[in-house]
Amino acid sequence: MKVLAGIQPSGDLHIGNYFGSIKKMIDRQDKDNVYAFIANYHAMTSVKDGPTLSKYTMQAATDFLALGINPEKTMFWVQSDVKEVLELYWMLSQFTSMGLLERAHSYKDKVAKGKPANHSLFSYPVLMAADIILFDTEIVPVGKDQIQHVEMARDIAVKFNNEYGESFFLPEHQVEAEVATVPGIDGAKMSKSYGNTINIFGEEKKIQKVIKKIVTDTTPLDEPKDFESCNIYALAKLFLDKNGLEDFEERYRTPGEGYGHFKLYLHDVMWEYFKPYREKREYFENNQDEVRSILKMGAEKAALIAAEKMEIIRCKTGIAY
Ligand code: ADP
Ligand code: TRP
């Protein structure tokens, strides 16, 4: 299977990004053809400061490698290093109706939150479609919020194929129910834009502070508590195995402990889970040249595939003359 996903370098990675997308890519590396890239053109829609965008790009690359992207197995590159994607973006624009883009939830949400409604924000799904279908992707592992974008990529590919004959494979999204929407500390979807994230590689003190802010009900210490509606439990669930989870549920049923104790436990479990990754991160942090050469190698491989595909597409569309 060809599995592809991009992540925007628009800030610190959080555990919603990890369980919703990154981990799924990493887990598939042994059995599938995994294509992972850093979507820095997409990030321009929110990061307007040049030095910050380039810093975030290297930071995302460092984080991905630390979390287990293996460049021997996975094609790993930065979006802007394979320019074919921009050419395809233009070609796909011919097959993207205004109505399709006007229906995009993500665009509507962003504008409703006060982002200026400019063309890049509006045509964001077309660039994402180009990212996906350029590589004949079969599966796109994403969180629930991105399902519509993958469906739009399919719609656009169908229209192109109808016009020029079978050219692109039709991709499907992969969303797992348990991690479709990882909640933030307030119970809403964890998202950078809501300021409710728990970051993967934050400082321990800061993470402790954030975990302390997780919203709970006010059941007193000496009463049993409901784990199913509890945000601490929903987050701990991501890190615990079956036995660990059963033990934790028992602690909710048994009076005597409060949410403060459960928060400390969540911190410990999470801190332990990411420990090996923190160590690996430190290595890559100290060897940024190695990160750069990994990205370069990935871009070279991706560019070869992209060039070959676009050669065919240029002929079909008459752009090659
Ligand atoms: P953010 O909402 O923080 O800006 P992005 O839009 O950059 O995150 O998301 C990057 C990837 O992580 C996407 O595949 C997205 O679906 C996934 N993702 C982000 N937040 C969550 C979440 N809370 N639960 C599950 N997946 C998520
Ligand atoms: N829009 C995605 C997000 O915000 C990032 C992205 C860009 C992407 N291109 C992609 C994800 C292609 C999957 C496939 O998370």
Looking at this protein, list some descriptive labels.
321 residues; mainly alpha; Rossmann fold; Tyrosyl-Transfer RNA Synthetase; 2 domains; two-stranded parallel sheet; 5 strands; globular; binds adenosine-5'-diphosphate; binds tryptophan
Numbering strands along the chain, what is their spatial order in the largest sheet?
Answer: 1-2-3
Q: Which spans of ≥5 residues are poorly predicted at pLDDT below 50?
A: none
Q: CATH class of the largest domain, anyone?
A: Alpha Beta
CATH topology assignment of the largest domain: Rossmann fold
Mean model confidence by pLDDT: 96
Q: In DSSP terms, counting alpha (H) and pi (I) runs of 4 or more, how many helices?
A: 14
Total number of β-strand segments?
5
Task: Name the helix and strand elements from N-terminus to C-terminus, one letter apiece.
Answer: EHEHHEHHHHEHEHHHHHH
Task: Specify the structural class.
Answer: mainly alpha
* Biggest pleated-sheet summary: 3 strands, parallel
What small molecules are bound in this structure? adenosine-5'-diphosphate, tryptophan
Helix content percent band:
40-55%
SSE blueprint and pairings:
Layout lengths: L1 E6 L7 H14 L4 E6 L1 H4 L6 H18 L7 E4 L5 H10 L4 H5 L2 H8 L6 H16 L4 E3 L5 H18 L7 E3 L29 H9 L18 H6 L5 H12 L5 H15 L1 H11 L2 H30 L4
Parallel strand pairs: 1-2, 2-3, 4-5
Helix pairs in contact: 3-13, 3-14, 4-7, 7-8, 9-12
Structural summary, described in words:
With 321 residues, this protein is mainly α. The protein has two domains: 2-182 and 288-317, 3-Layer(aba) Sandwich (Rossmann fold), CATH 3.40.50; 202-273, Tyrosyl-Transfer RNA Synthetase (Orthogonal Bundle). 55% of the residues lie in helices and 7% in strands. The chain contains 14 helices and five strands. The strands form two sheets. The protein has a three-stranded parallel beta sheet. Helix 3 (50-67) crosses helix 13. The longest helix has 30 residues, at 288-317. The two termini are 34 Å apart. The mean pLDDT is 96. The structure holds adenosine-5'-diphosphate (ADP) and tryptophan (TRP).
